[in-house]
């Protein structure tokens, strides 16, 4: 059985958050060593496959810039409004993105 991913940003994990396309990937906003924390805090978002990878402006094609940075900033702002302080965010996710 696959893991049930959820998002603080949408209840619809079947359509891209930005385009509405039904053909999407579920992107962990904080990936690598922070992947499990993204799942724990709901920082997973459905995005069109071309926004996810293989394109120059995709989140994995342009890390920590453009759309990838925007998503990380959205997640940090949500964290600070709902979960804890900036210091706690930095402790959990490595650094300040705002």
TrEMBL record:
GO MF terms here are:
kinase activity
Q: Which UniProt keywords apply?
A: Kinase, Pyruvate, Transferase
Q: What is this protein called?
A: Phosphoenolpyruvate carboxykinase
Q: Which organism is it from?
A: Dorea formicigenerans
Species lineage: Bacteria, Bacillati, Bacillota, Clostridia, Lachnospirales
């Amino acid at each position: 059985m696959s893991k049930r991913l959820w998002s603080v940003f949408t209840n619809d994990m079947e359509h891209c958050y930005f385009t509405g396309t039904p053909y999407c990937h579920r992107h962990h906003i904080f990936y690598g060593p922070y992947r499990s924390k993204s799942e724990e805090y709901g920082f997973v978002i459905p995005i069109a496959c071309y926004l996810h990878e293989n394109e120059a402006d995709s989140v994995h094609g342009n890390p920590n810039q453009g759309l990838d940075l925007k998503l990380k900033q959205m997640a940090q702002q949500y964290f600070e409004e709902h979960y804890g302080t900036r210091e706690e965010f930095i402790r959990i996710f490595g650094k300040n993105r705002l």
